[in-house]
């Protein structure tokens, strides 16, 4: 089946849905639910500093850090400035358009996404076939009111999902990165001060999304923090004092470049939530104490609805008392179906820098705590990865300039 | 709102007839019912909420700040924020200037004087919470909220309290910043309530003109058929500037007859006293609990 | 650290509350019957918020320009206005402020989840929030006010969505934080639909040790339930009042 706009081919959605709602839930790539895709960090340029490319599966993000000397803000004379630029362009996926106007709150979907896909029966092949047709109609016509109570509705609020609401996605994404890296004081702004109240460094991190396959946030956060760690700014010296002081900047050949003072390494981990039950049950069924009520509820319903049996099985499964399926590092396909997302930012000291879950599926607090624990493990893994790549690069560069005696590696930055 | 030819002709004819009658059977000197209360924002020195039955609502706040300046023109700052309108539209700016100028003319700046060097600077912020849908199609109709805003500002200023100065008033020689008493019980009103030193901030009245008839506070239906509008400012028991003609209606812009301006000023003189009394009564009501306002 | 002792050894906070005590909570609905379809006023301590809701209305006749209608859910537009006088120090907030933009998206998404979407396909619900006074707990107050206004507008919802802030002082969580506490401490915003333990909204911007998170969430959930109860009481009171008038 050909692609319709930028939505997924229908069979894929059906497959994905059935896999995820199975018992145990599966992902198309057979990845574990809580296992991220392999992270590849590469240093883009062998001569320049601070240009990093990060590959998370097929998601491809590049970040370049640059610095120049400006005057500090009047109310913060002892601090440098740091800005992060994130812009989503059609480069990463045709689903995005560039230069979306900023009217975020009412912004219409840029492209009609697969808003809601009704999948009625996916038990048997035959029925699956009909439902696929139903779903096709639904997408094509997009006027099918999902009044059918039996319908399992997925998608809809794809919170971080694709271009559903690009303006909102962009704002949330930039705020997320901003909160994760800037607000958490990952970069020591005071170390950027050169002459108090007069001269300071203005550091910029520009993120470009080269390819989109889900989970832009995590990839971007890794890219930004790695680029900051890798960046070296030219050494400056203030000669003389008072009025007649002069600022001298040394280039790479004259003096070793200075790394930025990065205090900790915050990394974002994004979770996507799915549920096979209706919104109503997600809200009402929760004070079920718990399985008993749940079951009764299902039995009442199941009189006129046979395929609920499958869900009953899930309910019988003790560890999955609540019905949410949580996956880590979703692909674009999975994000499309997602009913809610949460981004957690942690560093390796087990400090939470930021959590953001806005709306979407309601998730048990216990599950959220579990998520944070999972995130912590992933962050540790990725932090090691970052450090490994950086250390290897330092070695490489040192070899290149082995003759230089001056070589000083300031280890303070990476603990 | 779109009026048919017959409707607007009917309204116009009944307004210009020898016994003018208004569509809502008001007298020419009668306002639409208004509700107001004040002093409900604990973070502001003074505040007021005034609203029309059609939903138009204006919340004003007065905040005082100590500055070292004696440039009278920046002691009063006005900012107007209208629901659904962007900041800094010409309309907002025009309304702001009108309100600010009328206040500057009527204000007794001695009330703001703290010491030899320091003054209170007032920030008057006005938000229009809601305008009826019909208002938004014509920018001219926006002027009809001018009168409401000025009453809101009047109430907010009337309810504004300033803390008691505890440092020396004569600080010409000494370098010290003014200090204030922490006790709000001993604070005083910005506009004194005794009869000698009191003054009235300006009120703006909108008068509609059709034929030889002048009416106060024209409603939306009336504005559609009016030939002219005049805004007249009233303060300290007399008519003051600014007096401006307003294009209340786009339909038929005839020239305004001088005697009609005089007539509208007479009309304002008739009603102003009552309006001031009513507003004063409201501003003197004490609010025990902040939240009863809503 | 601040000049104030935010949490005394005796267990009292700056404003004399205990750790699990909400500020004076007051709310009313139908405050602006003529200018909106649903309206509510909420005051949590010195934070006072007004919320007006217009809709559900036809998507074509909007003031904010025609928006594409969605076939199976309402278009919700949220605008937050923070007038300059809302804060103690007068401060103008630009309308294009990114933080405000983020807040309105968050509120929009939270509301989307508790409205029975299928009843309002191809309609527009305009939510406009005015912050009259700000003293901490901004987002929770906005969300609580929006819930009440939605109820007043008669829009069908699965349940209340209630939210509250929890600040962390050393190892003590403090519910319903005010601006003094929020300036110096890390805090977390929690939003919950209904009376359960499932979290709809979770937002935190400052650093918190991972092992303290559970405490914060637990207290936050209790706080949300309390607020929901308080709102429910008021709504029911007004409901009984309305019914008695009908008879």
TrEMBL record, chain A:
GO molecular function: mRNA 3'-UTR AU-rich region binding
Pfam family, one: RNase_PH
The protein's name: Exosome complex component RRP45
CDD domains hit by this protein: RNase_PH_RRP45
Keyword field: Cytoplasm, Nucleus, RNA-binding
Domain Exoribonuclease phosphorolytic: 36-101, 166-234, 326-376
One cellular component term from this protein's GO annotations in UniProt: nucleolus
Keyword Cytoplasm: yes
Subcellular location: Cytoplasm; Nucleus
Domain of life: Eukaryota
Transmembrane intervals: none
InterPro entries: ExoRNase_PH_dom1, ExoRNase_PH_dom2, ExoRNase_PH_dom2_sf, Exosome_comp_Rrp42_subfam, PNPase/RNase_PH_dom_sf, Ribosomal_Su5_D2-typ_SF, Rrp45
GO biological process, alphabetically ordered: exonucleolytic trimming to generate mature 3'-end of 5.8S rRNA from tricistronic rRNA transcript (SSU-rRNA, 5.8S rRNA, LSU-rRNA); nuclear mRNA surveillance; nuclear polyadenylation-dependent rRNA catabolic process; rRNA catabolic process; TRAMP-dependent tRNA surveillance pathway; U1 snRNA 3'-end processing; U4 snRNA 3'-end processing; U5 snRNA 3'-end processing
Family label: Belongs to the RNase PH family.
TrEMBL record, chain B:
InterPro entries in the cross-refs: ExoRNase_PH_dom1, ExoRNase_PH_dom2_sf, Exosome_comp_Rrp42_subfam, PNPase/RNase_PH_dom_sf, Ribosomal_Su5_D2-typ_SF
GO terms (BP aspect): exonucleolytic trimming to generate mature 3'-end of 5.8S rRNA from tricistronic rRNA transcript (SSU-rRNA, 5.8S rRNA, LSU-rRNA); nuclear mRNA surveillance; nuclear polyadenylation-dependent rRNA catabolic process; rRNA catabolic process; TRAMP-dependent tRNA surveillance pathway; U1 snRNA 3'-end processing; U4 snRNA 3'-end processing; U5 snRNA 3'-end processing
GO molecular function, one term: mRNA 3'-UTR AU-rich region binding
Family label: Belongs to the RNase PH family.
Species: Pichia californica
SUPFAM superfamilies: Ribonuclease PH domain 2-like, Ribosomal protein S5 domain 2-like
Exoribonuclease phosphorolytic domain segment(s): 30-163
UniProt lineage: Eukaryota, Fungi, Dikarya, Ascomycota, Saccharomycotina
Name this protein carries in UniProt: Ribosomal RNA-processing protein 42
Localization in the cell: Cytoplasm; Nucleus, Nucleolus
GO cellular component, one term: cytoplasmic exosome (RNase complex)
Keyword field: Cytoplasm, Exosome
Automatic annotation (TrEMBL), chain C:
CDD domains: RNase_PH_RRP41 (cd11370)
Location(s) in or outside the cell: Cytoplasm; Nucleus, Nucleolus
One Pfam assignment: RNase_PH_C
GO cellular component: cytoplasmic exosome (RNase complex); nuclear exosome (RNase complex); nucleolus
Primary residence: cytoplasm
Keywords, alphabetical: Cytoplasm, Exosome
Record GO terms (molecular function): RNA binding
A GO biological process held by the record: poly(A)-dependent snoRNA 3'-end processing
The UniProt record lists the keyword Cytoplasm: yes
Ranges of residues in domain Exoribonuclease phosphorolytic: 21-155, 159-221
Quaternary structure, from the entry: Component of the RNA exosome complex. Specifically part of the catalytically inactive RNA exosome core complex (Exo-9) which may associate with the catalytic subunits RRP6 and DIS3 in cytoplasmic- and nuclear-specific RNA exosome complex forms. Exo-9 is formed by a hexameric base ring of RNase PH domain-containing subunits and a cap ring consisting of CSL4, RRP4 and RRP40.
Family recorded in the similarity comment: Belongs to the RNase PH family.
The protein's name: Ribosomal RNA-processing protein 41
Species of the source: Pichia californica
